[in-house]
Amino acid sequence: MHRFTLPNGLRVLLAPSHGHPRVAVAVHYGVGFRSEPPGREGFAHLFEHLMFQGSAQLAGGEFYDRIHRLGGSANGTTHQDYTDYYQAVPASALDGALFAEADRMRAPLFTEEALAEQLEGVALEIRGTTVERPYGGFPWPLLPSVLYRSYANAHDGYGDPERLRSATVADCRAFFAEHYAPGNAVLTLVGGFDAAEARALVERYFGDIPGRPVPTRPDLRERAPEADRWAYGTEPGVAATAVALGYRLPDPARDLAGYLAHTVLARLLRATGARGGGGPVETSCGFFGPLDALAPETLVVTGLLPPDTAPERFVERVDAGLAHWAEPGAPGHGEAVRTAVRDLALDHVRRHDDLQTRARALGRLELLFGRPGLLAELPDLLADIGPAEVAGAARALRGSARAVLVLAPGPERTRPAPYEAPAAPVGCAGTTGEPVVPAWAETHTPAGTRVVCYRDERTPLAELRIKAPLGPDGWRAPGRIRRLAYEAQLRAGAAWRATGHFGTVQVTTDDQWLEVSGHAPAERAGDWLRTVVGTVLARGTAAAGAANGPAHAAVSAAPAATALQRAADAALRLRLLPGTGDAAALPGPAGAVVVVTGPGDPDATAALVTRTLAGWSAADAVTPEGAAPGPADAYGEDTVLTLHRPGAAEAHVTLCAPAAMSTATEAADYLATAALGGWFGSRLAVDRTPGLTVITGRDMVAAGHRAYLRAWHEGPYRPHTVGELRERVRRLAREPFTAAETDATRIFCAGQVLSVFDAQETLADMLCQTAAYGHDATWLMRLPRALREAPFADVSRAAVRMFAERPLTALAVRTDAVDLTETADTAGTDTDEAARVLPDGRAA
What we know:
The chain is α+β, with helices and mostly antiparallel strands and about 850 residues long.
């Protein structure tokens, strides 16, 4: 890592990662909630919003526009002692990203219009977070006013929207002049760039910003409470009482070892719960995470109480937990502490594998503590924490006073009384960075499972993914598959926890695939796979009658719009595969894909996977034989299948047709789908019907690939929507994409694809998806270049071929009543989304 300071005081961190196709840029300013003067509660957060409303050379929404059209992302957050602004873009766009950040550090624009607009936006955010949400404000920002007494530490960082409305443009300029000086900021770059070239760009754009005096940090010192402080409120519409305990933490700048011992203790309290039962306990070092604020900072313990349980009993159980961990020599303590330390270290490594998360953490640690190297040092520092250090932390908390916040069910909402205080850019020159093709290995098991393993040494963890097609019986009975998947999740989770190893196992289904995902230490990948084979995949893992139990929404919990889309897709599968499904088991290995990313030799990993999957045989479950789609006239014609979902808030329409996948046309197909309706600058997004949202995509339904449009609107179904959408896609033959449309789309898509390389977790997800769709092992690495080089004429031809050349079958999910006179005999025996199909193809 390269670390230097410009003459104007701006601190700069450069962390190049050779071969990475993207770069993250973060700017941290030393101003947060605790910097606000009395009467200006919430102003730091409001000001964060204003910093996106334009600067001297980037007016209005141009800051976001420049990033989004490259497939990048940007955001900002306000915390107790800092505000950060961060973006991630293709590496070739670093020049423009630095120019934009420098322009608003130099000369942001503040106007009456922008201030009024952001005041409304902040008011809505506050309402959604603290008013409309159950237990709103719990534990933050309510708990600080119970534990602390100084204005800086105790006041509500959201503030009162009505009081904020007194802010003026002059106030904004004064706040900027005081707090947003270069000397009060840290600029951090992480990702694919050359350090010398990046330094030259930093000096070019930031070097001439005038230095200003750096504000004095607010005095945060205050005495710890001498006795417990209790505060009460009530909450309507809830069944359980919520309790939050707040304890003072050691100052990490003075006693980092003590702080980390409390971090381990918090993990142990969460893992073991409050002693004596009483439901799960959540813990956190800091309101926004560890090492996120200066001292004083808070250890938070929260819980929802069982019926007829007094808050005092919860406090007593937490005390019992602290007493338990205060004895370093107690049986099992050594192993429990070692496990907690291991899990914390691996969580830390995995979380900061992400590009933006790493950039934000480096900048935060530099700004608050002057130690960006802590990011790499923390796993080793945690390893020094043993039972004696944890016992010391537990004894310290047992002997200290704390805050107790109680929100109990009541007829109206009440809350404790709030605390009252006494240059122009060069442009994107050069070529977008290409993802580096890792070492990889591919093989197939004798049972027909494709295995692809990639070397990724960013963390010591293996990310593991299994994706298997449900097959005809599973596609006909998605409700039963969901129940089986839920039961498999329970078995697999319990079995993995019993091993004591770090990691997770997650079993899900989207009605098309069964997916098993998770992570584990790389040396435990074989144990993870054996657990999955033994509890999920092999014959005999589910009880014979299990599929007749109740459905569990937890298997595939999804927003309402997604549930309606799944209902439409289920109806289409029933049309393609008529008959009754009898999914007595989860899918077999034929056609499945296993992807593993992590350190080590990929050939050895592939061999390990193949050996371990020997327990998953073709005789174990359903196979995809006979999964070919039904007659051609059942799909891709001017048919409208209607489903009735009374009470749904939105009506939904899916239009789709078969679309064969070909490597030769894949880049053009990808761009054509996006240019039509796959991003915010697409044709259907720009020329949209008011109240109607339309997106496009490609996926698999049953055994075939397809192209689709999905549309939804509030209120009753509008019959003319299907005809309107069909006409709009037919116009593609008459009105092909312009060069400007295609070029903007390719820039966005190529940049967006690079984002999957930001973290090992997201890379594993996408590698598994592309392998399941039939792409070769290195296709994802070649895709950004292919998108940039796809011939312009091929994109419009692809759009016509996929969306306009043949009729699109429509599936309409109605919210209003439909006259249904006939249903299948099995209508009431399953909870599948579309088990009832009428003879004319309508589904109820």
